[in-house]
Design goal:
alpha+beta; 4 helices; 6 strands; six-stranded mixed sheet
């Protein structure tokens, strides 16, 4: 099993939305490296931190699991969708998405708390210039966050 961190803007789709829905496609990723992680490396059963980004207090909001392997992201073909990509064709799609399922919600673990932990100094999301919406998380990082920082949501 591998571990991941997946970013979403909570005003678009947050942990509460996933909790309500149970499962959701993780569509709209338009970065080749993040796409490759979904396409080549993510497996059903892998766990991911659900990270709220581009909001007043970014941070880890909970955990989801990969419930379905990568498949073409249908939003790339929809001209009315903000994720439409005219270069992508149904017979040769550029973009994929996985399906995630809700596992649990945390009290938000703020970005500042992640930065303050020396054990997380090498964590990809904390590296200068990192803008990827999906990043791998090491076994040690996962263990530290889930055992030391995560508290069940009320």
């Amino acid at each position: 099993m591998r571990y991941w961190l997946m970013k979403s803007e909570p005003n678009e789709y947050g942990i509460d939305d996933l909790k309500r829905d149970g499962r959701s496609a993780w569509f709209g990723v338009r970065n080749y490296q993040a796409r490759n992680f979904m396409r080549d490396d993510m497996k059903v059963g892998d766990l991911a931190f659900f990270y709220h980004s581009s909001c007043p207090e970014p941070g880890i909001a909970g955990v989801c699991k990969i419930a379905k392997a990568a498949a073409p992201d249908v939003t790339q073909f929809d001209k009315e969708n903000p994720h439409y990509d005219p270069k992508s064709k149904p017979d040769n799609p550029l973009w994929v998405c996985v399906e995630v399922a809700f596992v649990k919600k945390f009290e938000l673990i703020p970005l500042a708390a992640l930065r303050a932990a020396p054990e997380l100094a090498e964590m990809r999301i904390l590296q200068r210039g990192n803008r990827l919406s999906i990043t791998p998380v090491s076994d040690d990082e996962w263990a530290f966050i889930t055992k030391q920082l995560a508290k069940a949501a009320k």
